[in-house]
Design a protein that fits this description.
The structure holds two protein chains of two kinds. Chain A is an alpha/beta fold. Chain A has seven helices and six strands, in the order αβαββααβαβαβα. By secondary structure, chain B is α+β, with helices and mostly antiparallel strands. Chain B has four helices and six strands. In chain B, α2 packs across α3. Chain B is globular. Chain B starts with a strand and ends in a 5-residue tail after the last strand. Classes of the chains: A alpha/beta, B alpha+beta.
Chain lengths: 207, 126
């Protein structure tokens, strides 16, 4: 929506803001924290958060400020926001299956639900979003559709990240088919494959 | 355990004024172990509010929802589009689409296709 773009531009100018908020969204275990760590490590020399195979490892928004990405003539300063994975269900028994005690699992489930709510509330406050998807899974889920739909409705620039290219059964083409209206970048956050393509896209599409 | 399906007309949903009322009405019924089929799609704002309210209600017994919606995926951005949509509702018209929502402990799989939603329900083994 042109009015919102204009409003955001004015807001940035008059607040004297030099950096943007870049949010990493997606379902649990899509590789958001692995990607946030990669970006942060490449441009600040430090990682951001702990990575785990157990879902909902990130249960509160993790922030890294003043990350400056430079590609060619483009330079963008951003606050990197690693969001908790968005889900519609959280069952503490799933964490018990990963070896946690019942009490630990219940605590983690409670924190996970709060994290999801926090991530949803942030949908209105990011300037640009990376929507991270696991390219070995079906991308046409209600979580992905709802995240993208709400960002689109607010005219927030979206880059869809087809992650986990390093896995044999990855099918990034399915993500392109599901979201043809958006710029899709295929990467492996784990190995760093094609991460430069993502940096170019961030510099090009962020605002 | 039996699985109860409930088909809810868009007229019944129209009586729920505001997103919060609509979301609470849906979640109350889903918490009663019903799978709902709504005669309308949910807007992105309603889906977002539904997910937020769902997360706030999760506890040891209620583990959340699964849902999918057909139609309503177009973005309503301009005030003229919003006005048109609201006018259709006020005049008693139907905006179309459908939504399937149920408790995650009863829905094994829900899958959206361009023209249909397939759902596999059953009691999950403990």
């Amino acid at each position: 929506m042109p009015f919102r773009r204009l409003f955001n531009w004015f807001r940035r100018i008059f607040r004297g803001r030099k950096s943007i908020s870049l949010g990493l969204y997606g379902p649990p275990n899509a590789g958001k924290t692995t990607l946030a760590n990669k970006i942060s490590l490449d441009w600040t020399g430090e990682e951001m958060g702990k990575v785990s195979e157990i879902p909902h490892e990130t249960r509160a928004v993790q922030k890294k400020e003043h990350v400056v990405v430079k590609t060619g003539a483009n330079k963008i300063e951003m606050n990197l926001l690693d969001m908790p994975g968005i889900a519609t269900k959280v069952d503490y028994k799933e964490f018990v299956e990963h070896g946690m005690s019942k009490e630990e699992a219940q605590k983690r489930a409670k924190e996970a639900t709060s994290g999801v709510i926090e991530a949803i509330k942030w949908l209105e406050n990011v300037d640009t979003a990376l929507v991270v998807m696991d390219s070995t899974r079906d991308p046409y889920t209600q979580v992905n559709i709802t995240i993208i739909g709400n960002l689109e409705a607010r005219d927030i620039p979206i880059i869809v990240v087809a992650n986990k290219l390093d896995l044999e059964d990855s099918k990034p083409g399915k993500i392109r088919e599901a979201f043809p209206q958006h710029h899709v970048v295929e990467i492996s956050a784990k190995t760093g494959k094609d991460i430069d393509v993502l940096y170019d896209a961030i510099a090009k599409y962020s605002r | 355990m039996d699985i109860e399906l409930e088909f809810i007309s868009s007229d019944a949903l129209k009586e729920k004024i505001g997103t919060e009322n609509k979301v609470n009405y849906i979640l109350d019924r889903v918490r009663g172990n019903k799978i709902l089929i709504l005669e309308e799609s949910l807007s992105y704002e309603e889906r977002k509010k539904l997910m937020e309210a769902d997360m706030a209600q999760i506890d040891d017994e209620f583990t959340g929802i699964e849902f999918d919606t057909l139609g309503g995926d177009e973005i309503v951005k301009t005030w003229t589009e919003k006005l048109k949509k609201n006018l259709i509702k006020i005049l008693g018209g139907k905006t179309g689409g459908l939504t399937v929502i149920g408790p995650s402990k009863l829905i094994r799989e829900i899958k959206k296709h361009p023209q249909k939603i397939s759902l596999l329900a059953g009691i999950k083994e403990e």
